[in-house]
Amino acid sequence: MPTPTPTQARRIDPTRRAPRPTPPERVRRSWWLLEFYRSALGKKYAMAVSGVFIMAWLVAHLVGNLKMYLSADAFNFYSDWLREGLGYPVLPHTWLLWLLRLLLIGSFVVHIHAAYALTVMNHRARSAGYRSRDYVAANFAARTMRWSGIIVGLFVIYHLLDLSWGPANPRFVRGDAYGNTLASLQRWPVALFYVLANVALGYHLYHGGWSLFQSLGLNTPRFNAWRRWFAIGFAVVVAGGFISFPLAVVSGVVS
Q1: What CA–CA distance (Å, rounded) separates 26 from 252?
Q2: Is the pLDDT higher at 27 or at 112?
Q3: In whole angstroms, what is the distance from residue 234 CA to residue 240 CA?
Q4: Collapsing DSSP states into helix, strand and coil, what is residue 3?
Q5: pLDDT score at 62
Q6: Chain-centroid distance, C-alpha 110
């Protein structure tokens, strides 16, 4: 039997230790909530949760504005309380109001960013062989949601310039919420814009209210009919309530 060479002997030596495997490099992970948000499921949850907060704020805003039908004093008193008395004396003046404003701004930012990111992800995942009738219907709903969201976003900016900050209102008087509202909505182009913007809001709320439960994983065939009625009812009540204000001012019901 031939004698093994030194190189072969080193290879077959049973007492020789095998080299230690190189440990894999540690992957530095971000905060778990940020990691979750980077996924499509996380963005859908973010849209749903931020949408719920915005929907709750819309209901509260509508209920407060209904005081315009009572009297000018009732409406101005509500406006003053919202600015100065909300949360007082438990919290200092305007603290709770600014906290709600920051939460609302954050909800808008998250909602818009998640919608944009999901649109980009859908475009990247789209393939030529996936253009079925269902896909066309879903894409139409996505397009209408996108455009109604853009219209509502532009309306919010104008609404703040008109009734909160004043540059868009030629007869703006700080503290006179009732007079500022009448001065703005008595201009029929502005009233028409308010009506059209709230129609877009209603359409957005309908699709959002319908898809909300699906995004949260709460959709079942047994409750789909209730989901649809909830979406329709919420959109009609909220958008219809806001549409009533410019119509009431232009028609002279509120003066």
Answers
A1: 70
A2: 112
A3: 10
A4: coil
A5: 97
A6: 7
DSSP 8-state class, residue 16: S
Q: 67 is written with which tokens?
A: 């005081």
C-alpha torsion sign, points 207, 211, 212, 213: positive
Q: For residues 162 and 170, give the distance between their C-alpha atoms in angstroms, rounded to a whole number.
A: 9
Degrees to nearest 5, angle at CA 112 with 243 and 215 = 90
Cα dist. 131→30, 126, 137, 142, 147 in Å? 36, 9, 10, 15, 22
What pLDDT does 68 receive? 95
Say yes or no to pLDDT of 212 above 70: yes
Candidates 121, 115, 106, 125; CA nearest to 204 is 115
Collapsing DSSP to helix, strand or coil, 221 comes out as helix
Buried b / exposed e along 94-118 (16+ C-beta atoms within 10 A):
beebeebeeebeebbebbeebbebb
Nearest 10 degrees: Cα torsion 141, 148, 59, 163: 180
Tens of pLDDT, residues 133-178: 444 444 555 667 888 899 999 999 999 999 999 999 989 999 899 9
Q: Which residues contact 135 (CB under 8 A, 6 or more apart)?
A: none
Out of 20-24, 60-64, 87-91, 244-248, pick the least confident.
Answer: 20-24
The amino acid occupying position 196 is L
Residues 103, 52 contacting (CB under 8 angstroms) = no
Cα-based distances in Å from 127 to 132, 137, 141, 232: 11, 16, 19, 33
Distance separating alpha carbons of residues 138 and 127, to the nearest angstrom: 15
Q: Which two tokens stand for residue 16?
A: 């020789």
